[in-house]
């Protein structure tokens, strides 16, 4: 997609590329190894693209959300239900779009920012271990 849209943007000297990563980009999650690895890729790729093209009039942004109530997490009502940490798609989109041009990298939603800052207080191995137990506990539903 980036390869597809970038030439036109460079020609016009304007445009915006918003890549949707995830908070899990910061953690190597067991059982969701492909998902978290892919999200790390998206975050890293976006930072690199911004370094290359950010000064060409193109805004490159990486959004790293936590929970948004969509089909993605509909397998478990506890994480799907909108609440303090789980944004509705409308609330999330409104909040995330408002950060365009201000933040190169953001969770896109204030409670997600709080959540990520809290998680980053702990060493990664601890978060990964908690996640592992959480997934093993919910394995049936995840499958
Ligand atoms: N929801 C969350 O809590 C959360 C948290 C962090 C990051 N994210 C990220 O946010 C992004 C959007 O996810 P979402 O939460 O909005 O989930 P979603 O409601 O399940 O939407 C996923 C979208 O991706 C499309 N899609 C899936 N597989 C595809 C494929 N192989 N080729 C083309 N399109 C495909 C689906 O199209 P169809 O509708 O046609 O199937 C759908 O429009 C994802 O990158 C996800 O990783 C979500």
TrEMBL record:
Keywords: Mitochondrion, NADP
SUPFAM superfamilies: NAD(P)-binding Rossmann-fold domains (SSF51735)
Principal localisation: mitochondrion
GO annotation, cellular component aspect: mitochondrion
Pfam families membership: adh_short (PF00106)
Database matches in Gene3D superfamilies: NAD(P)-binding Rossmann-like Domain (3.40.50.720)
Family per record: Belongs to the short-chain dehydrogenases/reductases (SDR) family. 17-beta-HSD 3 subfamily.
PANTHER family: INACTIVE HYDROXYSTEROID DEHYDROGENASE-LIKE PROTEIN 1
Protein name: Putative inactive hydroxysteroid dehydrogenase-like protein 1-like
Organism: Penaeus vannamei
């Amino acid at each position: 997609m980036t390869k597809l849209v970038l030439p036109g943007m460079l020609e016009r000297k304007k445009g915006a590329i918003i890549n949707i990563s995830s908070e899990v980009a910061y953690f190597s999650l067991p059982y969701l190894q492909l998902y978290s690895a892919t999200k790390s890729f998206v975050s890293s790729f976006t930072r690199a693209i911004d370094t290359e093209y950010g000064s060409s009039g193109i805004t490159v942004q990486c959004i790293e959300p936590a929970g948004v109530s969509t089909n993605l997490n509909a397998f478990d009502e506890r994480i799907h239900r909108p609440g303090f940490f789980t944004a509705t798609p409308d609330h999330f989109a409104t909040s995330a779009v408002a950060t365009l041009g201000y933040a190169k990298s953001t969770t896109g939603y204030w409670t997600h920012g709080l959540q990520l800052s809290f998680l980053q207080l702990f060493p990664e191995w601890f978060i990964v271990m908690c996640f592992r137990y959480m997934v093993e506990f919910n394995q049936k539903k995840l499958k």
